[in-house]
């Protein structure tokens, strides 16, 4: 049995068509069912639903053999014990710095101001500001980062930006892009040795779906 870890929402929705190209179908809809283990039309493949930020942990500790996780999540996790063979080019966005529309970020940085930055991504933010030589106090949040500057809790946020709609709706502007994000296939290294054949087959399914010429 091969266990594939996915998170509900965009990762599940964007992974489904890749599997479908090889005729693999998940037999239950996570939006309708409360089940966390979903069968597929392949008797030897099942899907487990976990929080997006838990996918690397499930694969690292063998709760799943393979999974799909955003690079943002993988960087914060650290990637220990994970083989990362393929960029699936799904769930694409950026990690960016954003500030309230009236705030002169460039000026604050030039002045050497100490910035309070709210984020769900402390590892990415710490590394980015350290490289720039900007002093920051990081405030760890688990969601709704946009609210932090609006309530005066932070000067800036480090968050994911795709269309920019969330920033615009909250009167924030993107001032720097830190890195592009897409989702990676992650594989448990021990499982890859023990279940070599079926895992290589599934990795090929994903590779063909996102690089059809290969
Ligand atoms: P949770 O609800 O458990 O806190 P989450 O908000 O991180 O999880 P998703 O929003 O489904 O869960 O995000 C999963 C992954 O999809 C992220 O890790 C990121 O790589 C990518 N992603 C997040 N937001 C966007 C977006 N607006 N556009 C494109 N990709 C995104
Ligand atoms: C994500 C992210 C941003 C938003 C950016 O939130 O955390 O808030 O998308 O996308 P945009 O630039 O296209 O507006 P998500 O939709 O995942 O909601 P969440 O708060 O439930 O994570
Ligand atoms: Mg989200």
TrEMBL record:
Q: Which InterPro entries does the entry mention? A: ATP_PRibTrfase_cat, ATP_PRibTrfase_CS, ATP_PRibTrfase_HisG, ATP_PRibTrfase_HisG_short
Kindly list the biological process annotations in GO that this record carries.
L-histidine biosynthetic process
Known EC number: 2.4.2.17
| UniProt keyword Amino-acid biosynthesis, yes or no | yes
> Which pathway does the protein contribute to?
Amino-acid biosynthesis; L-histidine biosynthesis; L-histidine from 5-phospho-alpha-D-ribose 1-diphosphate: step 1/9
Query: PROSITE patterns per the record?
Result: ATP_P_PHORIBOSYLTR
The record lists the catalysed reaction(s) as: 1-(5-phospho-beta-D-ribosyl)-ATP + diphosphate = 5-phospho-alpha-D-ribose 1-diphosphate + ATP
GO cellular component terms, A-Z: cytoplasm
Domain spans labelled ATP phosphoribosyltransferase catalytic: 51-203
- Keywords for this protein: Amino-acid biosynthesis, ATP-binding, Cytoplasm, Glycosyltransferase, Histidine biosynthesis, Nucleotide-binding, Transferase
Please name the top-level EC class of this enzyme: transferase
Location(s) in or outside the cell: Cytoplasm
One annotated GO molecular function is:
ATP phosphoribosyltransferase activity
- UniProt comment concerning the protein's domains: Lacks the C-terminal regulatory region which is replaced by HisZ.
Q: Which family does it belong to?
A: Belongs to the ATP phosphoribosyltransferase family. Short subfamily.
- What is the protein's known function? Catalyzes the condensation of ATP and 5-phosphoribose 1-diphosphate to form N'-(5'-phosphoribosyl)-ATP (PR-ATP). Has a crucial role in the pathway because the rate of histidine biosynthesis seems to be controlled primarily by regulation of HisG enzymatic activity.
Quaternary structure, from the entry? Heteromultimer composed of HisG and HisZ subunits.
**What HAMAP family has UniProt attached to this entry?**
HisG_Short
Q: What is the name of the protein in this document?
A: ATP phosphoribosyltransferase
């Amino acid at each position: 049995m091969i266990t594939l870890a996915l998170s509900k929402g965009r990762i599940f929705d964007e992974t489904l068509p890749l599997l479908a190209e090889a005729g693999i179908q998940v037999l239950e809809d996570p939006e309708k069912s409360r089940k966390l283990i979903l069968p597929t039309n392949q008797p030897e493949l099942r899907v487990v639903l976990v929080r997006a930020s838990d996918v690397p942990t499930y694969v690292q500790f063998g709760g799943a053999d393979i999974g799909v996780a955003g690079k943002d999540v993988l960087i914060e996790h650290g990637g220990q014990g994970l083989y990362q063979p393929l960029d699936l080019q799904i769930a694409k966005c950026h990690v960016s710095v954003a500030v309230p529309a009236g705030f002169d970020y460039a000026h604050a940085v030039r002045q050497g101001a100490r910035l309070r930055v709210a984020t769900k991504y402390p590892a990415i933010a710490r590394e980015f500001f350290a490289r720039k030589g900007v002093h920051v106090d990081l405030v760890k949040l688990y969601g709704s980062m946009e609210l932090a500057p609006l309530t005066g809790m932070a000067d800036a946020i480090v968050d994911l930006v795709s269309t920019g709609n969330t920033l615009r709706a909250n009167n924030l502007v993107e001032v720097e892009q830190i890195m592009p994000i897409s989702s990676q296939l992650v594989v448990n290294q021990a499982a890859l040795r023990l279940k070599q054949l079926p895992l290589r087959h599934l990795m090929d399914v994903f590779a063909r779906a996102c690089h059809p010429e290969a």
